[in-house]
## 1
Amino acid sequence: MKIIDKIALVLIIIGAINWGLIGLFKFDLVAAIFGQMSVLSRIVYSLVGISGLWGIKLLFDD
């Protein structure tokens, strides 16, 4: 597995944990750490979204 694939996977896991916390406890961990829709939180959300798209590629790799 390439390093970029591992980074994408870690970000996908972070996003999944964050969504789980939102769904179960109405607690947004990214917003709690970086601020509600601050520049940093938007960067994290964007990276998680891009990683999710990259994860589609991982489904079809051998």
## 2
Amino acid sequence: MSVRLYALDGCPWCEKAADALDEAGVDYETEWVEALHSDRNEVKRVSGQRGVPVLVDEERGVTMAESANIVEYVERTLQ
């Protein structure tokens, strides 16, 4: 899978990013993360920080955080 979304269950910003991907018809995999920031080592490894959501588009070599940035990227690049 070339698009991966790191998300926390119940996070409204993560839901916003997932909704944008769903609306654009993007095939993606969700990586559910731990609630405690200190337990989000995988997110830190891929993005350099522990906040979510984080989108990784392996095909285009893009990794980004912040739901507004992710939504804009999906609308401009992945539709």
## 3
Amino acid sequence: MKIIIIGGGPAGLSSADHLARGGHEVVVFEKGPVGGNISRYPTYMTWFSTRELLELGGLPLTIPQDKPTRRDYMIYLLRFVEHARLDVRTYHEVLSVTGGRGGFRVQGRALNGREFEEQGEIVVLATGAYDHPQRLGVPGEDLPKVSHYYTEPLPYHGRKVLVVGGRGSAVEAALELWRNGARVSLSYRREIFPDSLKYWLRPDIENRIRAGEIQAYMPSHVVSIEPETVTLEHRGKEVSLSNDFVLALTGYEPDTSFLEKLGVRFDPESKKPEIDPETYESNVPGIYIVGVMQAGNISSEIFIENSRRHGEVLARALAKPNGTSGETG
């Protein structure tokens, strides 16, 4: 059976490996480099998980320390593609999927604008959610000084930075920015940080706030963003902050417009797609979903540690007679 996987991150690559071992012909399309979403993670990030929990297909993640850095894991993914001999076509953006189970037609655009087309019997979506930030929906959000991604602190030295968000990535960014000379404010919609905040981050950020080194507005939300200021609503009053940069680290969600084009149903609030939990097949026969897309906009539910096993479920489902698992819903 020929299977097309859209997305070349850990879940997509692991699924490709499991399916190839099951005797299927597998093609992976990734619109960026291998592990495209991870390539946009903070430059100096270190994983919370130990290396054993991030390994794919039994290939050891050979590093001297217990927890890999972003660079370590990006190199590991390249090694994994070569080791497993996967057909991964980078810089191939899929724009449409037509047809149905047993006869899908995938079309898109490759590097330098060249169009491509591929036929497959099954399509697996593994595109993640990192390309689609949850927007604030306020005036000024599209100004050049606003970003929904954080890479490193050096460009912000000496500047006034508002970090929007209160979960792990936002708190880590605020602390790193402060330690590297930025003048940091933080806006979070709740009065306290969530229970899921990593245990070593909580006392660190709370001590910085208590000492006045990071100015926190909790609870608050952004009302508008102007070239030199940001307006917050904080405890029933509007507060105007002098500001150079805004980092809106409020989470990410799957590309629901693409799901709609395919006819895949999803919950309008959580953005969770409708799938069979036993097979990961969506309501559209022949279209399967793996990786963090399964969690919708609940980013704390699925990680590399559990999504790397999604390929095992697919392989079992597609090993059944005729590779069919029945329709859901």
